[in-house]
Fold these 2 entries.
Entry 1:
Amino acid sequence: MRIITVKDYDTMSAAAAKIIAEQVRTKPTSVLGFATGSSPVGTYKQLVKMYKAKKLDFSQVTTFNLDEYCGLPKKHNQSYYYFMMENFFNHVNVPKGNIFLPNGVAADFKKECEAYEKKIAGKGGIDLQLLGVGANGHIGFNEPDSVFHNKTMQVNLTDSTIKANARFFESMNDVPKTALSMGIGTIMAAKKIVLVAGAEKAKAIKELEKPIVSPQNPVSILHYHPDCTIIFVKE
Ligand code: GLP
């Protein structure tokens, strides 16, 4: 694991976008894993800028998002589908049929999760996964637990995550209590990982400086990934 420290959010975003752009230029048919949250928004902006300047082409790219809230339809303005459309897909040329997110309103979540795993495998796996990190160390929606969960599944959000994400909803009661999330195994199978973390994640990143891997701090699993870059804004 490489931890690169940068001076501000824009530098972090530019550095992450550069790695993603290189991936797409080297392999135009790349399978990209995407994340939501405020941390990667700047990265998406940079990628859109490159696309608009005709420096990047997503026409052969396939994407899989990490997670989606259960119970929110695509058109809900807090669904991760909506977030991705607004912040990225509406502005670039990823073919609509190549965009995959777990379906938070699927009739059968178990089946939906199994199908999602199969879809990822069917596309040859993820070449590059972009990640953020929750204040409690979660990646995707893999919350601190006594074990690492491997596969995409329906997960319960912790009270601290519900509280942290309440800022985007009218009230805390409106925050979904469960989500569908890629598992730790799904994330770890990505060939390359890039994690972006702003200055407000200092505590989570400090923990990572210790050589301790524990499901109580899900992000710590990245110590075992062979090609993981963490871009962190150090104040
Ligand atoms: C959500 C997402 C995570 C994200 C985290 C941090 O819980 N499921 O994928 O990393 O929020 O969000 P932010 O970047 O806004 O701090």
Entry 2:
Amino acid sequence: MTHSDLPLWPETRVEIREGAVLLRGFALSVADELLPGIREVASVAEFRNMVTPGGHVMSVAMTNCGRLGWVTDSKGYRYTTEDPSTGKRWPEIPEAFEKLAREAADAAGFSGFAPDACLINRYAVGARMTLHQDRNEQDFGQPIVSVSLGLPATFQFGEVENRRGAQNVAVRHGDVVVWGGTARLAYHGVLALKAGVHEATGEYRFNLTFRRAG
Ligand code: MD3
Ligand code: FE
């Protein structure tokens, strides 16, 4: 190994439970391509706080890119091909996003991952996501790839059967988690974001969630 082959950033692979692999720093070297990508998507499909079927306004602001976008409103949770706020198709997944998702899935043992949906979550101070399962996708055999950018957060992840006994894992700027196999339907959430300022994202945390939805 020559000097030029040395990694620029330390990277660590941690199996946080069966089927869930944390790739620490996996997205660090491309973070400066991902953030302009988020800005570009949001210039077409703006961040918005959606309403749950139960009538709660979500504290996390969301937008999407890809053929399918995840939405919620009084009628329920689902994927749509058009942004309900504009009636236009969701913007395409930027090439750098797609490449990262494929490489992360591959590194976790899921070769050939081809996401058709990328949900972009934006957390401001206090924003959180209560424990839930991701079950609006067609094929639970396909993994989910999650990319954390900006301020740190705490993921909670529990069992497939129930919300009890959830464990915490801290995620930082550039971390990627791949959830597949027996972890695919595990309950999970994100604790309320603590106030802070990150050099890349200011007062926010962003999360890219790649899915094969259709
Ligand atoms: C999947 N977002 O949008 S996925 C979501 O940080 C969502 O915004 C998280 O959950 C966020 O639906 C990132 C984190 C996650 C954690 C545990 C899981 C996804 C998981 C366990 C099983 C399947
Ligand atoms: Fe989720």
